[in-house]
Structure formats: C-alpha cells, structure tokens
Amino acid sequence: xxxxxxxxxxxxxxxxxxxxxxxxxxxxxxxxxxxxxxxxxxxxxxxxxxxxxxxxxxxxxxxxxxxxxxxxxxxxxxxxxxxxxxxxxxxxxxxxxxxxxxxxxxxxxxxxxxxxxxxxxxxxxxxxxxxxxxxxxxxxxxxxxxxxxxxxxxxxxxxxxxxxxxxxxxxxxxxxxxxxxxxxxxxxxxxxxxxxxxxxxxxxxxxxxxxxxxxxxxxxxxxxxxxxxxxxxxxxxxxxxxxxxxxxxxxxxx
Length: 254
Prior knowledge:
Elements: E1 13-17, H1 22-33, E2 37-42, H2 45-57, E3 61-66, H3 72-86, E4 91-94, H4 109-137, E5 140-145, H5 158-182, E6 184-191, H6 205-214, H7 223-234, E7 244-247
C-alpha cells in the first residue's frame, strides 16, 4: 500500500518539516511518488541530503533546506527558497516535533520549553511563513502532525499532551477562519504510537526502558502508515476538507 501512486498530486508543491527521518521522510517519498515536488526542511544536513537522493531515486523532485523551525527567520527563509525554486507552496506539513517524556515532579522545565518551542511555536512559524502566499492565491493545505495525546493526556506526557492539544485547537481554528472564506484546507493528523526516533527523546534511561518493555511484542504504527493518511488528506478534491485523522495501532489499548 505504501508504494501505490497517489492521484491528485501531480504538479503540487509540498514543504515538509522534520523531513530528515521518520514520518517526514516517509511523507516526502509518498507525495513525491504521487508527482508532488517536495521541499525538505530539517536541521540534519547529511540526513536531508540522503532523503533528497531517496526522493530522486523514485523519480521525484526534491529541495533540501537545512533549517531549525524553532527560529522564525530560518522558517521564513526556507519558504522563500521554496517559492524561488518551485514558484509556490501548495501543501505545508508541520511534522517536526519532540517528545522528552518525564513526570511533572521532575521539573524538567527546559524540556517543557523545548517542546513548546518546537511543537507549538515551530508550527506557528510554518503557518505564518506560508499564509501570505496561500491567502494571495486563495488556496492551500496545512497539515499539522498532532497526536492521540492531543485528545487525552497521559502520565509522563502531560506537557507533551498540552502541546498537541494546542495543535488540535489551532487546526480547528484555521478551519474556522480560513477554509470556507479563503479556500485554505487544514488537517490534524493524530497518530498513536509510531515506530520512529521520537521515543529516543525520552531523557531518563529507565523511562525509555519502560516504554520499550510496554511495547515489546506489540505492533506500532509505521511512518508509512502516517504518510498514507497524510497523502489521503492532501489528495482529496478541493471540495473536501479532511479535518482530522485519528489512527492508532490495533495493539494500542488506550
């Protein structure tokens, strides 16, 4: 399924943050196979180059843009480079995020701030950078990669959940203000547990081990599963606004 061609993407331009691995990489490949040109944004230059080469191997067109999405100017410059190279941004995929889980009592305030900077402010910077272009054309699609945690908090993930609640509220607000009148669609993708690097952000070794033990023998989602959901949303006809997609592993009990 993950290698099937996606209809409705030929000639479109997608900018994807967090594109150097995981969901971002899988999404870039999925959209490129459907004919979209992709702008790959992430901090790791070497990994970005590898993803660009992977996209080109499947016949796609890719632009690698090293940038830190917690820095507004770098996000704006990434969008400008995309506009200069491709002439537009039809799809923004706000995918970059971190998940340094810990209990509130540990007072890892620096981790809390890092999550706010990337999971919320990074999303806002992406929206702010593409919005003038989308408003001028009265069309565009903003995809925010949220989480099932944006529907319910969990122990050790309270602040992470708060950032994903913010993404969910923001996505709903974009639809309220910009969809019917300005033609800008929005989708909140809400995965459950995905087999990516995200769990490596858990700072305490014992917490990482607990997470690993909890999922031993269970099937997680793959990055390709999430990319498939994103492709479904952005390839829908203009009259269709897929506002939310909640997807969880069959083996996830909550």
